[in-house]
Design a protein that fits this description.
CATH architecture: Roll
Radius of gyration: 16 Å
Helix content: 10-25%
CATH superfamily: Electron Transport, Fmn-binding Protein, Chain A
Shape: globular
Number of helices: 4
Bound molecules: flavin mononucleotide
Largest sheet: 7 strands, antiparallel
CATH topology: Pnp Oxidase, Chain A
Structural class: alpha+beta
Strand order of the largest sheet: 3-2-6-9-10-5-4
Low-confidence stretches: none
């Protein structure tokens, strides 16, 4: 293996120690709701209210965000590992959405079972290597029934444990 490939592998293994929540970023694509499993989501600013999502350039959800200029972040529950797998696949968007019920809120599809959701208007798209950083201005949000979050850690799913 080349030195660059070694470094990439080491980086992936190392950054995998950073536990993150797991979300489905939704948007409206050419054929209706679209979405993908996403853990590169970060709160960016409180004034104004901004958050960022890192989109792989090959993501079809990114195409929908480029055209609709809106997206939502839907936070997954501990039991939603199967949903994360489906939305991480390259199935057509219609098939992904057969697995969830959703509603339209603030112009974006919101997954009914989400632990919490945040709707955004696209503020800016920035270049980020092989990804595109989507900065969204928050337009709405909601919190679902109380529960534990799905957590991604070292390439697998876990959850938090609280007393
Ligand atoms: C736990 C997990 C986290 C992921 N995080 C991201 C992410 O932050 N950004 C991204 O572009 N893809 C991420 N992916 C990969 C996408 O979900 C995957 O490429 C998906 O097929 C894209 O779907 P689309 O082409 O329908 O948009 C993640 C996958 C998994 C399993």
């Amino acid at each position: 293996m080349s030195a660059a490939a070694d470094l990439t592998r080491a980086y992936r293994d190392t950054i995998g120690h950073l536990a993150t929540g797991v979300t489905i970023v939704t948007t409206t694509g050419p054929d209706g709701p679209a979405g993908m499993t996403t853990n590169a989501v970060t709160s960016l600013s409180l004034d104004p209210l901004l958050l960022l999502v890192c989109f792989d350039r090959g993501s079809r959800t990114l195409d929908g965000v480029r055209s609709s200029r809106r997206f939502a972040v839907n936070v997954l529950r501990a039991a939603d590992g199967d949903l994360a797998a489906i939305f991480a696949s390259k199935r057509v968007a219609r098939e992904k959405f057969e697995r969830v019920t959703h509603r339209e809120s603030h112009g974006v599809p919101v997954i009914d079972s989400a632990l919490a959701w945040i709707a955004c208007e696209l503020h800016e798209l920035l270049e980020g290597g092989d990804h595109v950083i989507g900065i969204g201005e928050v337009t709405g949000m909601g919190v679902g029934e109380c529960g534990d979050p799905l957590v991604y850690y070292r390439g697998g799913y876990t959850t938090t444990v609280r007393d």
